[in-house]
Amino acid sequence: MRDYLVLDRLVKIYRPRGKPEVLAVQGISLSVAKGELLGLLGPSGCGKSSTLRMIAGLETVTSGDIRIAGQSVTGLPPHRRNVAVAFENYALYPPLTVEENIAFGLRARGERDVRRRVHEVAERLGITDLLPRKPGSLSSGQKQRVSLARAIVREPAVLLLDEPLSHLDASERERTRRELKRLQRETGYTTILVTHDQHEALTLADRIAVMNAGQIMQLGTPSEVYDAPQNLFVADFVGEPPMNIIPATVRTDGDAQRLQFSDSAALPLPEAAFGDGVEVVVGIRPQDIQVVSQTRPGTLPATVFAFEPLQELSRLTVAMPGVETRLVIQAPPTSSYSPGESVGLLVNYARLHIFDARTGERMPCPWMDAQPLTALSQSSSSATGSS
Amino acid sequence: MAQTEARRLQSAGVQVTTDAETRQVTWGARLLQWFLDLLTLAYFAFALFPLVWMFLLSLKPQSELYSTYFRFSPTLDGYRAVLGIGGTEEIPFLRFFFNSLVVSVGAVAVSLLVGLPAAYAFARWKFRGSESLLFTLLSFRFAPELMVIVPLYVIYQRIHLFDTRLGLVWVYQLITLPLIVWILRSYFQDLTPELEQAALLDGYSRTQAFIKIVLPLVRPGLAAAGLLAFIFAWNAFAFPFVLTGSNAQTVTVGALSFLGGAIPRYNLTAAAALISLVPPLILALFIQRFLVRGLTFGAVKG
Ligand SMILES: Nc1ncnc2c1ncn2[C@@H]1O[C@H](COP(=O)(O)OP(=O)(O)OP(=O)(O)O)[C@@H](O)[C@H]1O
Ligand SMILES: [Mg+2]
Predict the structure, then answer these.
(1) Is A12 touching ligand 1 by the criterion CB < 6 Å?
(2) Same structural domain, B23 and B107
(3) Which residues on B lie below 8 Å from A58 (Cβ)?
(4) What CA–CA distance (Å, rounded) separates B65 from A83?
(5) Exposed end of chain A (fewer CB within 10 Å): N or C?
(6) Neighbours of A21 (CB within 10 A)
(7) Domain that holds residue B255
(8) Looking at residue B250, which CATH number applies to its domain?
(9) What is the pTM of this model?
(10) Residue of A nearest to B214 (CA)
(11) Residue whose CA lies nearest to ligand 1 atom number 5
(12) Could you tell me the CA-to-CA distances from B166 to A261, A312, A378, B247 in Å, in that order?
């Protein structure tokens, strides 16, 4: 089913007493297929949790509609939506054992076979030995797993995860993330994962909705979002280290066209594609710039500003003549540069992102169509690194 | 566990390395400990002295009350007189005692009944006037009782609540209700609403979620607030002093009436005061268990 969970022009306005109202969610529409894992990615305060809580029925909907399996659930109380939530703070019940916690929802509904089902889920999540313990004695990772178990034991139509990994330390997070991926694959739950961690979204989600200020900025697969950001916000938000973003003007010289960064720094384009004099913003990821000798033809001249040798990749910061914005480049770990050194930059045109300076929208580049996007994303998604 | 173990080993290791230094450190630490113990003892004596004095006073015969040098032949006559054993009781102290019990328990019960849902609402929702209502409640605690007592006296006379236990239970709400609401509210606020929301998703109603999830978790708060409110109600003086006559009088006022005769009988007042110490003491000992359990509950959170 393509449209298993549908959000239709969903709006949430908070009207706190004595304070100005907050437009938390401003008319978002999206549909999630059955068994799909959709990542809801965005900065703090962009309305992710509000959206999630509206789907769960914990928050009233200001306007718009929510449908699950073709049926509107907008007016239904939480327990009649067949939706489960794994809360950020786990929300485990301290006086009960892990087993009782997981069984709690089943008992409330008076379901049968509780014991067997609890043990099955526990087995699946590898927490069988935790069953007799109280939540207070568990680590964050274990609590998170119990919270997940409690959510899925009911076999909900839609599983909602609000920042499930945010309170875990790095190694726990990595492990739980892999578990989550495996679990979701095996069980095939329709899942919405809320996160502000792009690494989490890029590695876990089938599709990502990037949100900002209550709106969806882009909806697409991780490689679409990463390799073809639709606007400056997505370009800037997704990717670690962040994309270099430099304003430029399009200049035409007969047949040839170039991006003029300053009087003395220009990047020739492989094809003329834009109107002359158009103001644009150019985005280049740090891993898509190659540092070569300045004597090579077709390079951008630059001066080394700083060089940080890091473990796996070194980080080089360079300045182009007359350009205020510095460029960050990922250089091979074996390389070495000293400040003030003159270098030449080679840009991977296939991975050059050009945005309209006025609207911030992506401008199509004709030379990119020649290369298939997926082939490119192979090399790039591994470069997202850990954040 | 592992962490404390490591720390223990570490401190043991430090002791091994520099022997001379350690001895010095422990001497300093011991001296400090002695000093602190001394200080504690001094405070203990200071705090206990009035009680001891009262105790001695309560055991003195009438004849020794006013002697300027220490003469002490202990007798239980004072207690007998107060409790009306083997003689005629001039003052119905036992009735006052019973009044105090009924009024204090009643006041706390009413406050819990009203205050528990109120505190929950104040903790979970902002509604019109919630802030000012809360503040008004608090203001009952810091506004002096004497400020309202004269008008209350007039009103109570008029609506026939003067010198009744019901009247006291009602007016004690000024004392107990703010305590209960404010203490319980902070307990409710410490509980994440997600606990109840998880229950809502599981199919419990709001009321069920409150009774099954929230209430058991705030039990230590309930015990603490109830105990404190009981002590405040038990010790109340101004309200019963003005608003009761002989019928609904409480121990706090009653104990003083031994001083009202031709000869003030301090020994009887002391005995009465000590007797009236018993119920709060028993209650505190009984409730202490819940309070300590409350502390360990805190470790479960987060
Ligand atoms: N109950 C509320 N009353 C008033 N404003 C609220 C309420 N809940 C959320 N908001 C506001 O709505 C906006 C969106 O909040 P929301 O919790 O959905 O953001 P979020 O994307 O989940 O952020 P975070 O990553 O910090 O959890 C924020 O500006 C927040 O301050
Ligand atoms: Mg949130």
Answers:
(1) no
(2) no
(3) 197, 200-201
(4) 77
(5) C
(6) 10
(7) 93-295
(8) 1.10.3720.10
(9) 0.79
(10) A93
(11) A14
(12) 86, 79, 81, 12
